[in-house]
Write a structure and sequence with these properties.
- The complex is a heterodimer of chains A (334) and B (119).
- Chain A is an all-alpha fold and 334 residues long.
- Chain A contains 13 helices and no strands.
- Chain A is globular and about 65 Å long.
- Chain A starts with a helix and ends with a helix.
- About 4% of the residues of chain A have low confidence.
- With 119 residues, chain B is an all-alpha fold.
- The model of chain B has no long low-confidence stretch (mean pLDDT 89).
- The chains are: A mainly alpha (334), B mainly alpha (119).
Chain lengths: 334, 119
């Protein structure tokens, strides 16, 4: 049983290593971007082997979906061919990388044995708090959601703020092109597959409601199974990205307008922080959801987690769609 | 002893390849790809530390007693989404640099800067 797991691990790592070396070797940046997508999907499989289903879910949606699309979008705007890397760059980099590797291997000898139940991380009192006490305190079967939204809610608020900031920064860099009013109603929809690939268009149209429905399921089922606001936001965005790729930016912008997205981007963050302020006003600590329902603290936790995850989902979805629009819109105008 | 650390070492091997891509290539898109590989290797190491033998995903059920540690999962799943946001920021900068210099190669961009008659 354990032997088989090791074989699966090693096989997956072999694919990862081959993909990473392929990225290093190839001079075609399109190939490198596609290899990075393969790399991410294989990483997601490896996360499942290591019991991190929530992480695998996120990585599959982000790494293999959004990230590849953004890299391809960048390549469409720039060069897709890299020039030959001279040995004057290769040799010092190789020396530093190998030196770092030797140091890491030396340091790894101090790490606890892999997957040993006696490891410090498994023996720490916090582990019991998360895996046992959380059922009475929060009552959410998916411990990852309980820790993400409640125990470490303040931390997650910071992460959402980072996503918001990155979204704003990309909009500032790529949003407008010197007052050019392209993309106004009436201009032809940019990109998309006009009149060709009928099968693709029909299938994409059929899949759209299911993708968006699945995103909502992931959003609201995150308490009981893998999922939550981060995954749901990215899957929702991936649905819109698929629509844009097949039907063109103009049509997508008519359905999900950038104006609404620009309002939703801060709205999610404000909803999250607003829950914190509400708990403060109700006499609790910041993001202490027990204050939302003093008679039944578990009910308060459920309500708090629902609202906070909704905030995360809104900001992540808006940020991802805006990021994609920014790259795609730049290409359509130039 | 050899089997006890194999998962860490495989993550470290990926980390080294990522670091090499990041440092050796002058092309900025390639650098960001290397950074992604590097980032994933760090995530892999983190997740490895939470794994426990015969454990399962930390979604509680009365029929299961051993779970892997949920904390690394929480930290890494948010880090992945933050990672794509920051990668997108990097790519946006690459696009703007390409518009200003006509190249995505850092050596060529620096050479343009050093030219005395540069605009």
């Amino acid at each position: 049983m354990i032997g088989n797991v090791i074989l699966v691990d090693i096989a997956l790592f072999a694919i990862l290593l081959a993909a990473a070396l392929g990225i290093a070797h190839t001079r075609s940046l399109y190939s490198a971007a596609m290899l990075a997508g393969l790399f991410s999907l294989t990483c997601a499989s490896l996360f499942v082997v290591q019991d991190a289903v929530d992480v695998a879910f996120t990585e599959a949606a982000v790494g293999a979906g959004m990230s590849t699309v953004l890299f391809l979008g960048t390549l469409a705007l720039t060069h897709s061919r890299e020039r030959v890397t001279p040995p004057t760059r290769r040799v010092p980099a190789l020396l530093v990388a190998v030196g770092t590797g030797v140091l890491l291997i030396y340091a790894s000898l101090d790490l606890p044995p892999y997957a040993d139940p006696a490891n410090p991380v498994q023996q720490h009192p916090l582990t019991e708090r998360y895996l046992q006490t959380s059922q009475q305190e929060i009552g959410v079967p998916n411990v990852v959601t309980a820790v993400l939204a409640s125990y470490r809610g303040f931390d997650t608020l910071g992460e959402v703020a980072v996503i918001f900031t990155a979204g704003v920064a990309v909009l500032m860099l790529l949003g407008r092109l010197r007052g050019n009013a392209a993309g106004s109603p009436g201009t032809a929809p940019a990109g998309g597959l006009q009149g060709e690939h009928r099968v693709l268009r029909v299938v994409a149209k059929l899949l759209m409601p299911f993708i968006l429905l699945f995103a909502l399921y992931v959003q609201f089922h995150g308490d009981f199974g893998p999922g939550g606001g981060f995954q749901a936001g990215v899957i929702f965005a991936a649905g819109i990205v698929l629509y844009t790729l097949v039907f063109g930016l103009g049509h997508a912008r008519a359905v999900v307008t950038p104006g609404i997205l620009r309002m939703l981007l801060p709205l999610g963050l404000l909803l999250y922080a607003g829950v914190g302020v509400a708990t403060l006003l109700l006499g609790g600590a910041f993001l202490d959801y027990n204050a939302l329902s003093p008679q039944d603290p578990v009910q308060g936790q459920h309500l708090g987690i629902l609202l906070v995850e909704a905030g995360v989902g809104i900001t992540v979805a808006a940020a991802m769609i805006l990021l994609f629009y920014a790259f795609a819109g730049r290409g359509a105008r130039s | 002893m050899i089997a006890s650390g194999y998962n860490y070492w495989m993550a470290m091997a990926l980390l080294i390849v990522g670091l090499y891509i990041l440092m050796s290539h002058a092309n900025m898109v390639k650098k960001l790809l290397g950074l992604s590989v590097f980032q994933m290797a760090v995530f892999m190491l983190y997740i490895s530390l939470g794994k426990v033998r015969f454990g399962t995903a930390p979604i509680l059920d009365s029929s299961i007693t051993v779970y892997s540690h949920p904390l690394p999962h929480v930290l890494i799943l948010t880090a992945i989404v933050v990672g794509i946001a920051t990668t997108a920021l990097g790519l946006a900068l690459v696009v703007r640099i390409h518009e200003a210099y006509g190249t995505t190669d850092e050596d060529e961009a620096l050479a343009l800067d050093r030219k005395p008659d540069a605009p």
